[in-house]
Design a protein that fits this description.
By secondary structure, this protein is of the alpha+beta class. It contains 8 helices and 11 strands. A hairpin with a 5-residue loop joins β2 and β3.
């Protein structure tokens, strides 16, 4: 029993002498503080998976919905960047493809922080947005979908062998921040693993060599998970071809019109304040997801 719990018990004993409103208020406040601390410590019981303590690669892919979906992907990117900021994690956009009119077609973010994968792993899946379209002259209601892929950073991969003949390496001009040479030289790198069809890309570094090194690191992480997959269905899911970012596959719905509601379809957790959720206030949803199962996906 820690000192704070012992202190609370002693305060409760003092009430036996008779009612004391100030003491009761102090006890209530102390209890709330201990309850919050307990729940935070309790999460560690659920974060014992093989990769839970690792850093994470978060990828977003705009799905059905055209420009709307690409704008939705950018909104989700901001949401996760704000969540990482709240947790004091470091986040870096590794690769990004802008949309033709607005938003982004896809993005990969490297998030570095304690238990980053453990907290974010359940965010993998399709996220659905319902709102009045800002891209439609009639301002009609529109539904958009984005697929989130969550991949742990694997540090020990001595058993992974990648033969140069199995790779196709393409270079191209980066399309986002990265220094004065962006859009002037082909510093961005895309690596395709031919036997599996897995593709990774990096454009966050200034030099082609640095981008290739980071891309290979991501590829090894994907191949490690691929090799650890128990069956072909799981392998297809890791490659991103199993779940379509469209109707029927969503894990969470964000509704901005005709009412305001964010609902996780797995845990049943709801919020009537979507603006706060989209600003990175995800603790309620993520903690419920973590407690949903102790098993590593």
């Amino acid at each position: 029993m820690d000192d704070e719990t012992q202190e609370l018990l002693e305060m409760l004993k003092l009430l036996e002498a008779g009612p004391d409103e100030d003491l009761e208020n102090e006890i209530a406040k102390k209890y709330q503080q201990l309850e919050k601390k307990f729940k935070k410590e309790e999460l560690k019981v659920f974060l014992g998976g093989e990769y839970d303590s690792k850093n994470v690669y978060l990828a977003l892919y705009a799905g059905a919905g055209g420009t709307e979906a690409q704008d939705w992907a950018e909104m989700l990117l901001r949401m996760y960047l704000r969540y990482a900021e709240r947790r004091k994690w470091k986040a870096q956009v590794v690769e990004i493809t802008p949309g033709a009119e607005a938003g982004i077609k896809n993005v990969v973010v490297e998030i570095t922080g304690k238990f980053a994968y453990g907290y974010l792993k359940k965010e993998a899946g399709v996220h659905r947005l319902v709102r009045l379209s800002p891209f439609n002259a009639q301002n009609l209601r529109h539904t958009s979908f984005v697929l989130a892929e969550i991949l742990p950073e694997i540090s020990e991969m001595t058993e992974i062998e990648i033969k140069p003949a199995e790779l196709r390496v393409d270079t191209y001009r980066a399309s986002g921040p990265g220094g004065q040479n962006v859009n002037k030289v082909e510093s961005a790198v895309r690596v395709t693993h031919l036997p599996t069809g897995i593709v990774v890309a990096c454009q966050s570094e200034r030099s082609q060599a640095a981008n290739r090194e980071k891309a290979m690191k991501m590829l090894k992480s994907k191949l490690y998970q691929y090799q650890q997959a128990k069956n072909e269905e799981e392998k297809a899911k890791l490659k991103g071809s199993q779940v379509a970012a469209a109707w029927g596959n969503q894990i969470r719905s964000y509704v901005l019109h005709p009412y305001k509601m964010v609902k996780d379809l797995r845990t049943g957790i709801e919020s009537k304040q979507p603006e706060q959720i989209l600003d990175g206030d995800l603790d309620g949803f993520i903690e419920a997801e973590i407690r949903l199962t102790k098993q590593e996906p």
